[in-house]
Amino acid sequence: MSLITESALRAMHKSGIPTPFLLGKGDRLTPAAADFLKGRGIPVKAFDDQAASNQAAQAAQEIPLGVSNRHVHLSPEHVERLFGKNHQLTPMRELSQPGQFACEETVTLVGPKGSIHGVRILGPARQDTQVEISRTDGFVLGVAAPLRMSGDIEGTPGLVLVTGRGTVVLEKGVIVAKRHVHMSPQDTQQFQVQDGDTLILETQTDRPILYPDVVVRVDKRYALDFHVDLDEGNAANVKTGDRVKVIGKNGQFYSDYRR
């Protein structure tokens, strides 16, 4: 609570008076101060602490979204077989997760029914080769890829990877990635979850969709991000950089959620 005078405003004027000028709870302007602001066309508004608190709380319960197109993770052995001995993947741009990048290199996916060219490789190389496609891609290729979390490739179908320098026949490794949220240990404190929990998320577009079972994956290397594939992104009319709202967890809606 304070009394704001004309002299105080004149001192602020040198560095710039905010527009509108916000009055905190209990703050008052002297008549001369009010005339000073009015004469300069600066509106005065009451600062709503509750509204600001609500906005901050809402922002704290939102998660950035990333739409993931088809891509390939290669093992070091398969990098060499497709691009030559001692070849190192060439970073093209960084991804949302620290240390991960899209590569200059691409491959062609060949399935029983068709092929898809120019599929981006993501680096760095990892232990097992994995191909992540959408359901729509599966129809084109003739591959019935199961819905799996990344890394869970036992019992999955394979296909053929082709470049101008080599070919790899995969016996397994093709999946449709199950939607998931990456979180750091600090993020789990904010959202009150732990690794393996599920969140209920809602898009905020003209085609709102609820995702009832988004798995939380936790690692100190992760940055907060919700991943969906291209089919899911198109269905909800979302794009990378949009935000989704957390409205529940482990199958239960939060009490303040309004449908």
TrEMBL record:
The keyword Zinc applies. Its cofactor is Zn(2+). Pfam families: PTAC. Signal peptide: none annotated. It catalyses: propanoyl-CoA + phosphate = propanoyl phosphate + CoA. Keywords: Acyltransferase, Metal-binding, Transferase, Zinc. Its EC number is 2.3.1.222. One of its GO terms (molecular function) is acyltransferase activity, transferring groups other than amino-acyl groups. PANTHER family: PHOSPHATE PROPANOYLTRANSFERASE. Belongs to the PduL family. This is Phosphate propanoyltransferase. The gene is pduL.
